[in-house]
Amino acid sequence: MIGLLKELFSPESRQGAGAKPDRHQLAVAATALMVQLARVDNEEDDRELQAIVDSAVRSHDVSREEAQEILDDARSHADDATSIYEFTDRLNEQLDQEGKEAILESIWRVAFADGRIDKYEEHLIRRMAELLHLNHREYMQCRHRAEAQLSP
């Protein structure tokens, strides 16, 4: 994971900011945000972790095994991150507004996975939305879309 993160945030990688985004790098950045969310309430719930894997498979075109590897690495190195800004900054460089909304919707799905939204989770998601340059309307739409997927 450290190697992937170094590659993701290296100056050489940033020089190609206008180039087509590397799906794997975007999956790493998005997964790292989701791991931070899963840990914010000091309880890593298996349902949240499964939601992260499901999200990576669905959104980032990686296999279930690759998604699990990314998750395992992100979990073991999540404490090394000094800020979520380093992840949101990279996502802002590579994604359009629709892509950032898809990431936030996935983050909401992770939050809903354990059946409750902790106040710390909600605060962190709001901060992530701000750093992804999503306004309150987009923040709420992402929440409602994720919540609607819970209903049968």
Structure description:
- The protein is mostly helical and 152 residues long.
- The protein has a single domain, classed as TerB-like (Orthogonal Bundle), CATH 1.10.3680.
- Helix 3 packs across helix 5, helix 7 runs antiparallel to helix 8 and helix 7 crosses helix 9.
- The N terminus is likely disordered.
Write the layout of secondary structure elements.
Layout: H1 2-8, H2 11-15, H3 23-40, H4 46-60, H5 64-77, H6 85-94, H7 97-112, H8 119-131, H9 136-148
Helix pairs in contact: 3-4, 3-5, 3-6, 3-7, 3-8, 4-5, 4-7, 7-8, 7-9
Brief synopsis:
The chain is built from 9 helices and no strands.
Indicate the low-confidence ranges by residue numbers.
1-19
Order of helices and strands: HHHHHHHHH
Question: Can you identify the CATH superfamily?
Answer: TerB-like
H/I helix tally: 9
Keywords:
152 residues, mainly alpha, TerB-like, 9 helices, globular, disordered N terminus
